[in-house]
Design goal:
By secondary structure, the protein is mainly alpha-helical. The protein has one domain. It starts with a helix and ends with a helix.
């Protein structure tokens, strides 16, 4: 933490990064616990096309 702050990151940036890490960690643990499976490459492509058609870029 001291090294990150000394490198120029603000306390708020560190807090935000920790919050993102916690959210992803929780999501991954829940996905594992409930046996979620990853999409196929075709599924990822379809999802990306859906988001791009709706202005997510």
């Amino acid at each position: 933490m001291r090294a990150v702050l000394a490198a120029g990151a603000s306390r708020r940036q560190v807090e935000d990064a920790l919050a993102v890490c916690a959210a992803f960690n929780t999501t991954a643990r829940l996905a594992d616990a409930f046996g979620f499976e990853l999409l196929s490459p075709e599924g990822f492509d379809a999802g990306a096309k859906y988001l791009l058609r709706r202005g997510y870029n």
